[in-house]
Amino acid sequence: MPIILNEHHSSGFSLNWTVDKVLYQQKSDFQQVAIVELQEMGRALVLDNIIQVTVKDEFVYNEMITHVPLFTHPAPEKVLIIGGGDGGAAREAAKHESVKQVDMCEIDEKVIEACREYLPETSVSYDHPKVNVITKDGVQFIKDNPNTYDVIIIDSSDPIGPAVELFGKDFYHNVYNALKEDGIFVCQSESLFLHQNLIKKVYDTISKLYPITKVYTATTPTYPGFLWGYTMGSKKYDPYDRMDAEKQDLQTKYYNHDIFKACFALPNFIKEVLESNK
Length: 278
Prior knowledge:
278 residues, alpha/beta, Spermidine Synthase, Chain: A, domain 2, Rossmann fold, 7-stranded mixed β-sheet, 5-stranded antiparallel β-sheet, 9 helices
């Protein structure tokens, strides 16, 4: 008999999902980890009762958080993913010819265990020769690896539980130091409709560190509000200068060169949020 997963986001907003089957459920040292079969979206990774990825639309998020910064950088070789335990971002990063090494640092071994067993669509990257799966605290790992990476992707869950530190000023400073002199950083920035204060806070913090800071968007049905934000900080390369760059023929479902050009176009209400003095 189907059950209802109530995904609570605020006192006034929740999402209900019909679950046909619970395939995996374990309490880790950090959070509740589950894999469920959703009636509409297929298999999904759920952390602390919040859906992280579903097989029906994971490609949107994973392609956008990965290919936009990797195509902004002209020749990325070393990529670090903090979080991203489902493996989808690593799968996408490994597609780039110039990329020689993808380090995926996931704090929770239970996430890797669950995804390896039940989400082969994304966890296929675990066994890619370019990918190193590291089970460590990403906050400490960043501190221990200065001036190392061309691109750093913060593929975190919502800013609660083990992901709280991944949205702090100190962490962003350490990310900056872990990048090479022409490095690029990107993080997911939550819903453009529901989390405008967070988007503004992240944008302001990153823009104080990087000479080039951009917010871009993609529509992802699984996530609350659908329209999802990403914030990118670049030490040297402006994505606007890469609009006509030579394109690799990657196998993708959502991302293409036209999407790259379009994703930086922001609606006026978000421009107003970013430009406000609050």
